Amino acid sequence: MDLDEVAIAGVEGGPTIRISRTIVILQTLIIVALLGVISILIVKPETKSPSNNHAYIINYDQADLARLTELVDRFNKGLGDNLMIIEPGMDSGPVIHDIISNGKEMNWTVDHSRDAGYPNNTVKTKFVCRSIRLHERDRDYIDVQLSRCDGFNANEQLPVLAFPKDKL
Question: Which stretches are transmembrane (predicted)?
Fold first, then answer.
């Protein structure tokens, strides 16, 4: 008997079947690979809505509003947080809001560099503030407002983002 083959004895008096070890190994690998692909497809997480990711906001839906509320609540409790908000641009590219908070001070950067419709699209506006709130401006928008910001009147409410209610 060759080392690359395995003899399998049949039923009494039946034929002996010879199977190549290489074929058995290849068949086993194919079966394992197919089982792996099937298990990935079965337990694959829902990827249609990026709102499931707590690191960024892009849809402006109910889940994104909840995440924004969480940012405000965490800051007001003295807890840090990080968040990126990708806002559709005026004419072309998005406006990116990068928020970093240590619970006492919030660094909010608005990056217009990808928006060709913005008058000076190389500008990044940076706010360092010690207060944030969500304010219902009217029946159509919820504003994110910063206050107690460096370089501004302490009581001045700076609207940095408008959240459209029609997407909720």
Answer: 23-43
